[in-house]
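Pasting as-is:
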Amino acid sequence: MLTIYDSNGNRRTDIEAGDSSTQVKEVQGDNVLTLSFTHYEYIALDVNDRVDFEGERYWLTERYIPKQKSGQEWVYDLKFYGIESLVRRFLVLETTDGNTEPVFTLTATPREHVAMIVKCINDGMNHTTDWKVGRVDGTDLIVIDYEGKYCNEALKEIAEAVGGQAEWWVEGQTVNVCRCEHGEEITLGYGKGLTGIERDTTGTDNFYTRLFPVGSTRNIDPSKYGHSRLMLPGGRQYVEIHTEEYGIYDRYEQDAFSGIYPRRIGAVSSVRSEDVKDDDGNPFTVYYFRDDSLNFDPNDYELPDETKRVSFQDGDLSGLGQGEDHYFEVNFNSATREFEIITIWPYDDDTQLPGGKLIPKSGDRYILWNIRMPDEYYPLAEEEFLTAVEQFNTECWQDLAVYKAPTDHVWIEENGVSLSVGRRVRLESEEYFPETGYRSSRITKITRKVNQPGEMDIEISDALHSGAFERVNDSIGELKNYTKSKAEGAALPDIIRSWDKTLPTDNNLFSARRSQAEHISKKKNDRAKGKITFEAGASFGQEDNAGIDDKGNAELLTLVVREFLRSPKFVDGLFGEGWRLWMEDALSHLTIDKLTVRQVMVVLELLIEKVRSVGGQLCVSAANGKIKTAVLEDGYWRITFEQDNSFQAHDLMRCATFSGGNLKGYWVEVAGVEGDSILVSEDEFSGSLPEAGDECVLMGNTENPLRQNLILISATEDGQPRVDVMDGVKAKNFTGCLRARLGNLDGISDDWFPADNQPHGNGLYSDNAYLRGTFLLVTGEDIKTKFEIVEGRITSAVTALRNDFATEKGYLNNPAFDDGLEKWNTENETVFFLAGNKWIWANNNVLTRKGDGASVTVDDGRTVVHIRNKYILQKRANLKSIPSMPVNGDGEKEAVPVYLSFFYRCATKGTLRVQFLDVDKTGFANFNSLEVE
């Protein structure tokens, strides 16, 4: 069952998805939830209506009108889109100048680019702060031209600029630019979660078995090298791979090896600059640098018609310069051994490169090219070329295959397996992978059935199969330029603050305060709001001096208990059950069934209570008697009574007497009856033996349920007069046998009642109660009169101090509902029946049909509001106070956190939501409006 909500989070309807409903999600692709169902009524669905599925949220992107099938059937075929699809609607906008500029270029680290895009996503998602920057690979400055570019296009371009295996993907609300691979590796295979495996290589145009790698022409002098471009060692022209399996499929590859050529990676030793003027008298700065490790003169290795160029490999000039090679033209002074960087103005304004923050620094690495290198560099380049070709074959040829497999939903569900895009997979198959028997990869696409989430079609691959990216050319009109230094751009993933609702992932971070709120401290005293489970037990002290194991067994040196210890269930009195040690009126009490003292027992005062048919405690049961004679014969005690015998076989006979300073008691089972005597096995007695004068009563029967009940009337010196009704006494204890008690209830402990409100005082404790008549409250009013008042106006005269709202400091008016629903708005569907213009009275009450609504009532002594499928609303004008909002450096107001505490009790299953409605974020920095569900 799925619930569709409107854009404000209000429930529209619950639906049961049809068999054709699916979730389709892939890396760097769409994330679409298709729902097909038939509903019994027409429901208008609007833009930004949403539904949650498998921990992800999906939105409707257009207004939808269903197809009418009959008078009571409406057919819905809906497509809800995840954030990966929604970002196609949002342009990348530069807002640092206070405007929203869609045409600009940005030079910054990949993370700074992503942070700007994430801000655009937050703006597009109603100015929230939920979306965060996660892991972003790459630290070099990259240049991206934004001209009407959408967020998904920009993220893809950033991933390509980062290179390697970078992809853009979203986990929860965290945007990442890195390889989409996460989680513990899970083993899958045929019969191990998969019902089949299919290898597919048709999804790419680059399948090959014979590679023709084309080397670079850079730093090559054909007259000296003998070739116009770099060659493999020995002049090899191609490399074969798996031709014996698939035959010959040729591939030509040049771009992958364009960065390999005879070259030297130098390092800047020192930098200086000079302020000069151009021919028009305009001032600018020229930068020079030296490389003290350079062991040849570049001027001796010039190529005809070529100008020496430098491309910086790191530092603030990395990724900057002219063309896609990001180069600066240079001159070399053989006398001073300095390179002069030719200044450029690439941004159609007065921004020069190098210049400002973007200048060379000592330690920056660079490559000098457009020269002929010394001879020793060419064999090194050829070996590097061969290594790159082999690496290309290892990575790219493997990437071609996509393994498609349907899952076994029974196996998935029984093993509790969670599969998601990017999940690491060990795919086992002796047939597909004969050398190793498996392949370690990741899931790149999932097509999942909505009504059977464990049933999926998954795709496992190392690479994505998509079309080539088309670069935006340089002639895009007037562009604004924004440049950030690499030091500014390097940063950690985004922070989840204490009030954010962002889901934690492996690629974002908790703030210090959020961490303090989420985690238990190891260094200082701390408190947990929820239950903490120690599956292996817990030890205490530096040397494990004490502990509790996983079974609940504890070993402690000492134990101080302030109030009481007891068994799970306890009933006080001679015929109670369980045990308890407790404090009462500054005196300690202990109630147990048996006590053995091996040496000395010191008793200052001993009060003995005995049970008999009459006296301080009266037992009413089916049998009793005073022993006349007791004789041991052949292992049995033959007992006769002064009156007629009323005991039967299997009766449990009990005696408790005190005579001559001796305490005596036994509880035994009657083995049989012979005439006026009963027989009791000798083994039944331990310690006390039967003798003349003992008074015995029936207290249960091991087989006959009709003789397992009794009534105890007690008026002893414990100050707890009571009448107990026992039933089900079939053993020598009263565990679970107390059915009712009238009188003093002190001493009863029952887990059905709260720990701080156990039965106490004089009253009635019973399994059931059927009562009639008039019942008076402490106010003198009878209950019947009290509840004849029309519902919705029941209030308490005095409301005790409440902890859920501090009214003198809070934002809400009338938060404790002392004044009914004053200052609150709601609606009710209660219908009052009228005869003419007068109410109809029935059974001394107004005749109504109560529907959904909200009303003030009393629950467990509290004044509360009872809400049934409706709401209560306090408008801004009715708030008691409104916090002031500070203004940040950009002139925007900063929303401040508002803390509201409330208690609620769920009477029936449903959803409770607390939120601010119709929030106007105009003039505010992005923030999340309070919404708790």
